[in-house]
Amino acid sequence: PTDDEWALTRRAALYKLERRTFIPLQEIIYQLLGAGTGPGRGQRQEEEERFERLRALVAAQPQSFLEIQPSHQSPSEWKSAIALFDSMDNYSLPSEKAAVLVEVARCIYETHGREHGADAVGGSGASPQKQPTPMAAADFLPIFIFVLARCHLRSVIVTRHLVSETMITALMIGETGYYATMLEAAIGYIAAFDGAAKAVGRSSGSGSTATSSF
Asked: What residue stretches are annotated with the VPS9 domain (predicted)?
């Protein structure tokens, strides 16, 4: 077998292991993460309700408030990516939710390329091709925050814990790990939102984002 075939086999085995370990413990895990009953449920519920209020405030802001550059703002307001985020509730395994997270990110890039590509004529006889304006990580995060704020996930906080804390470590590599970090950063921004300052990262020049206590 080639290296790619071994990698696919290993990943399939890890997914199977996750399914066998997570499903039997799913109810307990959700209770521990705040989706069930038990000690501390009231406090967790208050924290989540506070977060959802802040998320609604962020969702009410235009793209420009989050310092999404005009060259990156979406005329469709990233509806395709938001719809993908909404579908995350249809999955239970952490790896499945993480896979949706990666698809959301790819959809953002695809939407950007489709909506902001510039016609560029190639060599002799070449037909015009769409050349999207490059999007750096600093450009991506505000868009991701916008999408997260406007999606309809039942519990962003529980989703964050499932992806970041219960997923098999070996699966948290590459794109999955990167966008899980983006999710953490987006939640941190929303949790620290005060409705006044634009604090996605560029305003202070530090490039940092707020951290979340959730």
From this structure: 44-199
